[in-house]
Write a structure and sequence with these properties.
globular; about 15% helix; Ubiquitin-like (UB roll)
């Protein structure tokens, strides 16, 4: 199944070189792949996976490992961000 992965801020370093400018990569994954599987595939450090949205909806940390993604979902992940 196809889905879109968007990584922001320092997490763009984990994308393929060709996707770092746009921060987006189109994925072809197994049916019902979980957010946890995508995080593991891209070797994202758990401490850097802070804000996770699927199609604009916040996914709570305790649900991410088992949350099943669907065809054409957009998975967006941000690291913790400090600012003033």
């Amino acid at each position: 199944m196809k889905l879109t992965l968007k990584l922001f801020a320092s997490l763009t370093d984990y994308l393929p070189e060709s996707s770092r400018y746009t921060n987006i990569v189109e994925l072809d994954v197994l049916e019902n792949a979980s957010i946890g599987q995508i995080i593991a595939t891209y070797h994202l450090p758990p401490k850097l996976v802070h804000l996770v949205l699927v199609n604009g909806k916040y996914i709570e940390p305790e649900k991410r490992a088992s949350y099943a993604l669907a065809e054409d979902d957009v998975l967006a992940i941000w690291p913790p961000i400090a600012g003033g």
